[in-house]
Amino acid sequence: MCCDLKRRFLLLYATQKGQAKAIAEEIQQQAGAHGLEADMHCMSEMDKYNLETEKDPVVIVISTTGTGDPPDTACKFVKKIRDTALPPDHFAHLQYGLLGGLGDSEYAFFCNGGKTVDRRLQELGAQHFYATGLADDCVGLEIVVDPWIDGLWLALKEAFLLQQEKEGMSSHVSAVSSSASAAPYIVHELNLSSEVQNLKIEDGGVRNSDALTQKLVDINHVASAGDNEPSLVHSVPPVSQTALNIPALPPEYIEVQFQDTHGENPSLSSLVLEGTTFEVPITKAVQLTSNDAIKTALLLELDIGDTDFDYQPGDAFCVICPNSISEVEELLQILGLFEKAEHFVSVKVKPGTKKKGATRPQHIPERSTLKFILTWCVEIRAIPKKAFLRALVECTSDAGEKRRLQELCSRQGASDYTHFIREPNVCLLDLLHAFPSCKPSLNLLFEHLPKLQARSYSVSSSNLYHPGKLHFVFNIVEFPACPTRAITRKGVCTGWLAELVAPLLHLNKNALGTKGRSPSTEKIHIFARQNNIFHLPADPSVSFMMVGPGTGISPFIGFLQHRQKLREEHREWEFGETWMFFGCRHQDRDYLFKQVLLLFRDELGHFLKNGTLTHLKVCFSRDSAEVNMPKYVQDVIRLYAKDVARVLLKEGGYFYVCGDKKHMADGVSDAVVDIISMEEGCDKLEAMNKLAMLREAKRYLQDVWS
Predict the structure, then answer these.
(1) Check whether domain 544-704 has CATH 3.40.50.80, yes or no
(2) Model-wide pTM > 0.85
(3) What's the Cα-to-Cα distance from 672 to each of 55, 643, 685, 687, rounded to whole Å?
(4) How many C-beta neighbours within 10 Å does residue 162 have?
(5) Which residues form the Flavodoxin-like domain (predicted)?
C-alpha cells in the first residue's frame, strides 16, 4: 500500500503523567497496520492543528488530574472551547471519538477531564463517530483501553466511508484496511501437543533454535506436575495452552551512549516543568504515633522564611524525591552496570527510528550520569505497562520465561496481568528477579520507564500562625512482602523522608517546642501544586464542618490556626461555627489528636476554649466494644444529622473531607446523602443530586487519596 493512499485522522492527547501520551502513541503505531495515518499532537500545541477547519475525523485521548481537572496540557484548549461567545454550531463540521479520563472511579469526579471536553464539544455541535470510552485506573486502564482501540478502526472506516460519500470520492475506500475489525495484535500460534515434542531438555533447561525460541514453551515451566495454581512466573490452562494475541512490538527510538566521568549533573529544579522549585531545610520532625501503632505518622516542619514560597491553609505542595539508593544500586548490579554508575551518558533519538515524531523523553536529561537518571528521573517502582512487558520479551533468552511474559502482556492473560502485576504493585526489579534471563538494555528502559513524579502533601499549618514555616503530616507507606515480592518496601517518598529525618526524630521525640531544637542540614526541594481549591470560606461568618480521621486531620490544623489569628486580628468580625470529626484506630496507640495537643502546646484545647473550634467529635474504630458506640467518623456524623443539614442546606456552610478515599470518604458521602434524604424528606436520588450541586458549588470539598 502506498503511503500517499493512507487516510489521515487527527490524534490529540492531553497528559499529566504520560499515560494519555503512551496510549496515543499506541494508536499512532497501530494506525499504519490499518492503512491509516495518525497526525498526532499534544493538545497544548495549538499552532499545529485547527479544529475550526479540521475535515478529517479527530481522536482525542485525555487524562484527568487532581480531583477532576483536565491535565495542565489541556488547560489552554479547555479555556478556548469554554468561550461563551462561541455559537452552538461552532464545531458542527467535526467528527470525533474520545478516550477520556484515565481516572479512578473511586473519586467523585471520575474521568471528569475527558467528560468536560466531551460535553463542551457536544454543546458546540460536534458529532461522535465513535462512542466515548472512560478508562478506570481503579480496575485497570487496559480493560477499557484495549477494546476501545480495537473497535476504533472499524469506526474510522465507517467515518471515512461517510465522508467519501459526501465528497463523492468512493475510489479511495480501498485505502482503509478491509479487516478493520481484526485486533491489532500479533498472533503467536502455540501448539503444545506437537511442538513441545521437538524440544530437547538438557540440564533442566531448553535449548533450541532462535526461531523456535520465539514460539515454544518450556514444558516444565507451563505444565509442572502438581502445580495447578498460576503465579507471576507460572501459568495454567487455558492460558498456558492457547495461542496468544500480544501487542505489536514498539519500535526502538532511544539511543544511550556512555561517555566519561567528567561534568555536572543537571539541577533538580531543571527536572520540574510545573513551576518554581524551592530548596528548603527540614527544621523539625516529630513522630505522632507510638512505636506499636499499625501506621507510623510523622510531622515535619520546613523553613520557607528565606524563599518566596507562599501558601494558604488547605493548599498542597509537591516534594521532589529520589528512588531508593539501595534499589538503584541493585538494579545497576542486575544490569551489570554498577561500575559505570558514575559515568555520564548521552541520551538521544535513535537515527532511523521507525517511531513517528520520536523525541527524547523530557524527564530524561540529554547528558547526566547513569545513576542520576535512575535515582531522580525515572520511576523504577512503576507498574510495567503491557507494552513494556512486550519489549522485555525480546530481551529474554529462556523460552519458558519468554512465553510467560508474552502471556502477561496478551489479551488472554489480562486476568493474570491484573492479579500478578497490577494488584501487587510489581515493579521492574521484581520482574528481573522473577525472570533472570531477561536482560534489557538502557535504551529499552529509558523508552518505557515513566517520569519519577513528585509526591503531593497537604499543608497542615497557617502562614499567619507560623510565619516562615510550613508543616505537613504523612504516614510512612509500606508494601508488605508477598509471593511476587520477597521483601517489604516503603513508599518512595515517605520512606526517603523518614530516613532523612531519623536524626531529628531522635532529638525531637518529645515535642515540637523549643526543647530539643537543632538546626538541620537536610534540605528538600518543593514546589506549589496548582489548582488548589481546598480552602477556607472567603466569608468568615460562614460555618464549616471538617472530617479528618488519621492524618486527614492535618490540613484542618492549618484551618484552625488561621481562624485563630483572624479572630485575634479582627475582633469585630463575625465568625461561623467550626465542627471537627476525627477518628483513628486506638486511643492509646495512635490518638493523633492527643499527640497534636502536645505538639502544639494545647492548641486544640485552646481552640475549643476560646470558640475557634466550636465542636469536636472523636471516635476510635478498634476500641468500640459496645455495639451502639460510633465506630467510624461517618457513624458520628449521622448522630449529628440535624446539625449537618442545618449547616449545609440552611446556612450555606461548607463541608470538608480529608483522608482515605476508599474506606472513609465514600462512607462519609453516603452518610451525608442519607442525612439530606432524611432531613429534607426526599428520596435518595434527589439527595444525591443535592450533594452533587454542593460539589459543583465547591461547598462539599474533598482532599482524598487511595
Answers:
(1) yes
(2) no
(3) 48, 11, 13, 9
(4) 13
(5) 9-153
